[in-house]
Design a protein that fits this description.
Elements: E1 2-5, H1 12-25, E2 29-32, E3 45-48, H2 52-61, E4 64-67, H3 70-79, E5 82-85, H4 98-106, H5 124-146
Parallel strand pairs: 1-2, 1-4, 2-3, 4-5
Length: 163
């Protein structure tokens, strides 16, 4: 399944790439969150709405994500979904894609941003290495500021007293 998750209305260029990709793969198309009128140009697609938990479930189950969202890009990387990220087309013409571009450059996969072709495999190993490093940095920071017992050491059944 191809999942469309666009924060702002999809650009005509991105929509044409979605339509072309769908025709080439034959995968069904689903949208989540925002059901833009332009999606009707895809033809047969299904809109899904739901909670943040539903969003993560759908993200984890889809084969391909097409998005303009930083968070959808990150979850695609974590869940090992193939993904393509497009520039967000804001009406106020502010570039909201710099952190996406920066992330994709760090994992040496910038070709997934505004893709020209859809032929190269995702670099899952690079993504995993990057996120493992970020977790380690975060853990070290939390231990440094919180002492030996960081937030990660609490278990679901631990009792926590509140003042």
């Amino acid at each position: 399944m191809i999942l469309l998750f666009f924060i702002d209305e999809i650009s005509d260029e991105a929509l044409e790439k979605v339509i072309s990709f769908q025709k080439d793969t034959g995968l069904p198309v689903y949208s989540f969150g925002y059901n833009y009128k332009k999606y009707a140009r895809i033809g047969d697609y299904t809109h899904i709405d739901g909670s943040p938990f539903d969003f993560l479930k759908v993200m984890n189950q889809c084969k391909v994500v097409m998005t303009d969202s930083f968070h959808a890009t990150v979850f695609s990387m974590i869940f090992h979904s193939e993904f393509y990220t497009f520039t967000r087309k804001y009406t106020h013409n502010q570039n909201q894609s710099t952190r996406i571009e920066s992330l994709l450059k760090r994992v040496e996969d910038i070709d997934r941003f505004n893709p020209v072709v859809f032929s190269h495999p995702p670099k899952y190993e690079k993504y995993d290495e990057y996120f493992e490093l970020q977790r380690k940095i975060t853990d070290e920071y939390l231990v440094d500021i919180l002492g030996e017992k960081s937030l990660y050491t609490f278990r679901q059944d631990d009792e926590i007293e509140f003042d």
